[in-house]
From TrEMBL, chain A:
Belongs to the GerABKA family. The chain crosses the membrane at residues 6-26, 345-367, 417-435, 441-461, 473-496. This is Spore germination protein. GO terms for cellular component: membrane. GO terms for biological process: spore germination. It comes from Fontibacillus phaseoli. Pfam families: GerA. Keywords: Membrane, Transmembrane, Transmembrane helix.
Automatic annotation (TrEMBL), chain B:
It holds the Pfam family Spore_GerAC. Gene3D superfamilies: Nutrient germinant receptor protein C, domain 3. It is found in: Membrane. Residues 228-395 form the Spore germination GerAC-like C-terminal domain. Transmembrane segments: none annotated. GO terms for cellular component: membrane. Residues 26-215 form the Spore germination protein N-terminal domain. This is Spore germination protein. PANTHER family: SPORE GERMINATION PROTEIN B3 (PTHR35789:SF1). Its main location: membrane.
TrEMBL record, chain C:
This is Spore germination protein. Pfam families: Spore_permease (PF03845). Belongs to the amino acid-polyamine-organocation (APC) superfamily. Spore germination protein (SGP) (TC 2.A.3.9) family. It is a multi-pass membrane protein. The keyword Ribonucleoprotein does not apply. It is found in: Membrane. Keywords: Germination, Membrane, Transmembrane, Transmembrane helix, Transport. It comes from the Bacteria.
Amino acid sequence: MSYLPNWSLLVQAFLLLIIPILLVLLSRVIRKSLKTSMDSHSKPEKEIGLTDVPISGTYDSDIASIRKAIGDQADVWIREMVIRGTEIRAALVYVDGLTDNDLIDTHLIAPLILRGVAEEHRTSFLDSPLSLSTYLMEQLIPVSEIKKVTGLQAFTEGILFGKTGLLVEGLPETLLIGSANGKSRNVEEPMSEALLRGPRTGFTERLSDNTGLLRRHGQNESLVLTKFEVGSRVKKSLVLAYMRDIVDPNLVDEVTLRIQNIDIDDPIESGYIEQLIEDNVLSPFQQLQNTERPDRVIAGLLEGRAAILLDGTPFALVLPVTFSMLLQSPEDYYERWIPGSFIRFLRFFAALLALLAPALYISFISFHPGLIPTKLALSIIETRQGVPFPSFIEAMIMEISIEILREAGIRLPKPIGPAMGIVGGLIIGDAAVNAGIVSPFLVIVVAVTAISSFTIPVYSAGITLRILRFTGMLCAAALGLFGVVMFFLLICSHLVRLKSFGVPYVSPIVPYGLSDWKDLFIRFPLKSMKKRPFMFNPKDKDRRN
Amino acid sequence: MKRSLYFVLRIAAAILLILNTGCWSSNEIEDVSVYVGLGLDVAQVSEFERGIEKQGASYPREKVLTATVQIVPPITGKGQKQGGSSSTPSEAYMNEKLTGDSIIQIFRQFSLRRDRPLIGHHLKVIVVSSELAKRYSLEQIFDFILRDNDIRPSCLVLVSHRNAFEALSTNEPGEVPALYLAGLVDNRYRSNKIIPPVTLIKLDSAMQSGSSFLLQNVVTAQNDHKFSGAGIFKGSTKKWVGELSQLDLEGLSWFSFDVKGGALKTYAPEGYSITYEPKNSKSKIIPKVEGNDISFHIKVSSEGRLIEDWSFPEIPSSGQYMRELEKQFEKEARKQIQQVLHKMQHVYRVDVGGFNKQLRIKYPKVWNKVKEDWDETFSNIPITYEIDMKITDFGSSTD
Amino acid sequence: MSGINNGPKDQITTSQAAVMVINYMLGAGILTLPRTMVEAAKTSDVWMSILISGVIILVAGWVIVKLCRRFQGKTVFQFMPEITGKWIAFIISMIIITYFITISAFEIRIMAEVTGFYLLEGTPAWAIVMTFMWVGLYLILGGINCIARLYEIILPITLVFFLIAILLSSRIFDVNHLRPLLGSGIKPVLQGIKPSLLSFTGYEIMLVTTAFMKNPKKANKAMMAGIVVPVIIYLITVIMVIGGMSINGVEKRTWPTLDLVRSFEVQGLFFERFESLLLVIWIMQIFSTFTVTHYAASLGWSQLFKKNVRPFIFAMLPVIYLIAMIPKDINEAFKLGDMFGNVSVYLFGGIPLILLLISILLKKGAKPN
């Protein structure tokens, strides 16, 4: 009888059960609200106030309707003229700043006004106006990209996208001439992924430049670039790149499906795409890898992965991604394998440190003074004399100020950035110790943690670890070393459940596979890495023939 | 649905961890008193205790023992002025004394006096005074210490000739006597007068096995310490019965522990002192059983160098001279062994030389028969020994 | 979102099956094994008992694999009715489920006791246990594949930390503590077999996991590896503990393995004290034993009643908790563990053999090629 549980035990058991169940119910509510808000997201009106009318061929009415459509835009210019040798009026419509004025002057205006239609052809156009357009295209205008358009809407859209429109009297169609010359950056070394050794090229904001960089990487027929249009209000082109004979076709299907399901008014940056197609929105871990480096994208493609490039951003997305890849840098492969492996090992260690060091500090200082070496314990006691806070608060103060410092460092103008970093880091740290707010030992821990988190080659992965670090500190503050172990198990449980486009996030660490381990903690010599990663299920498994 | 569910669960686990932040077990490291040394003496009521007892602040207890805890770093401020403490502010440690008949109760009494509770994780050295060990069995004294979850079994146990409190005091500013004593043990490679360290776990297994054992002895004079000899504890009672001197230990070391260093001094025929430094020694205790008769044979072979020679006029180190010196050293070692065997067999009648171990390994059946009364049996067993010393070199000078 | 590599059902690889057995076996027992064995046998030769019982377990494991391979893709709860008929199968399944629940509860209790004693003195047990169980719940909801993957992460950490901690204890290792060999004959060695058998419970998980294996033909290999690794670990543990502390020292210590690691300090190394490492990996191992038994019990219920497994996973939480809290003190908890260890010997040593014989005689199930 005495073994029957008493009421407090029963209450605990009840709580043990009811809390997760309540959380499940809560999650259902959240899920529903998320879904309805997604559904209610109505598609914007396709029409932007323009009704699509065909080009009539009557110059005056056409030019009037063009003016009506886009003439009130400050940067739309309409240049009217008469084609030499005929009485035919024509108008060039273009957007200032999007087009190349030189090209318009020398290759459009000059032929039309100065050369015009040759004597022997003049008469032939009068009865068949359509052959005029053929003449213009074939003999008069020396420009590579030229297209016939019949609808007014398509015409104005083309102009707004940077083409030059040519309206010719009597023609029931117009010509769109490619003269785009939007300003773009030169190919520069990527800021966020600097390497000591490796190509100095980075993507730019222009999609054609970026695809060009991929193409130019080397001759290869199997590189496929598929174009999509995303964005309902602002249309942007998006390119899905993959190697035709390597990639798993299921992956391409899945990605295509997800891209087609994107529903957003304007994907401003590839981060939008990333968040709209990832597997688990609620995970702290990123499920796509972003990079500015073409070499990284190519290496990914050769592993059987796919890449997404979006117009208007230098950041490409590589997918799927696994946890270990976030800690790999292209340099691992460019250096010889021994230094490469060493550096990679160091990075794994640093990641662990960045994640757990403050948590371990808290648990040892506040919970398990018996697990620290005696001499260290004695010196810690001496340095901590007079620190008014428990270690958790102390560590929080320092960690948060370091995070603020880091965030401020990004915003600071370049010339004073480093100076402020030193001021913040050294002076504030030193002053805090002198003021007795924190102990010097903690300053070391925090500094090591901060430096460690900078070794992570993918910046966004570093942020993830920084967030998790705070969770770890909380766990440590509650349950000491046991809490840290639980935190670690929780993260691991989450990681093993997470998938990126069907690939388990913890691959290739588990399941065990010797072939994929050659590129994990130790980067094996290139000669021994004969297979492509098995985890991506590539069609062509061998790296060589 | 699944995703959000999992996320919520994860968040929940995290949040509950936070809500659980009662931090029940949390205790900042600077808010506890770390003690590195523990001295156990027969009861000596301190001034402070007498003072408070006069005011009626006492609890029922017998005056059995006085426990001294050595707290580092000393608690500055008000802790210093309260009575019982005998240390001056310049010292790197603080000794606290309290008397009672239960160690744990004494420890808990500390929390009535100090705002920082004691934690024993960093206890390095326990010193028991021979006086206390003579009256009470070590099993009684160490019962709490072995049960406690704070104190690590790696803690070193020493016996003090006089007062354990004295052994934990020093005049040297900046020195912590407990750490100093713990450090002395590491000098075994320099002296064969130090026995292998006896940690709590070894003490426990020695006491459980019922055999007699030695604990390193600390001698104090003018608040300075020295390791000298060892206290003998009888297996049947676990009480202190006597002491081996330094010289005895040297003799014992030849066959009982591996000699890692030291200096064997004797006198050359002309009367000058000569010294041998053993480098590599091997010893073997060979038990022999014939019928009911047990006997032991000790075989020692040692290699080392002639490190000091006061002979005047100097004698060239010829082979023959070396043979002669080897003989002298052998004779000296033999003398030492004989002396310690005599003490073991006839003075104290205990076996602390590891003979029982060898017998148990070689003749487990015989051992089972005699183990009940081994110490007595041992005192009547004939022991023979042979020593072989070899001088391999003469240091850096060749003559 | 549906995965790409996901088959219709969760599947595990051969190495994952082996890892599950290893992680299940390494549980609460490793801290107490040297003491229970020395208590029973009173000799330093108990390490031989481990070898012998390892061989016995291998045979029992072989029987289980043989049985399971006759019924591919089915767990013990699913194929037993085919052999014994519905009602007997129901009863045996219930016993097996109860067994899993109790082991799970036992592990949790021991974990709470040790954590409360060495790491978190003063923290109430429910706080420790609830956190532990919720993290476990989160993992189990991911299904057997996630469980297996987590174990694969834990195992190398365990092995590395364990080897570091235990090999450093060679500083106090004295081979004389292990001598003489067979000083008191073979009989004590045989007496030591029983307690060591108890700590080898865990191979029975193959009754469930074989059904999930991608390649059930290799179940034998998985079982072999799954048993040999714990045997080696137990062997090293017992040898090092007895060698370091002698049987007299081991006998009176509640957690001898932990005490062994606490018995030395390595000056100069950053850690100096290694029990933290040991406790960390030990908590992880308990976690894996807990989760796998919790999952197996829930799966058993769900297959018995042919319902979705998730409600059962939730429902098992309070049941396990209450059972874990039944023993009043640690000795009663140890008794509970011993009792169910004994049950396991009959349940998973005897019954599979009988089932196998019946199924061969009645020609039930497919003959494995």
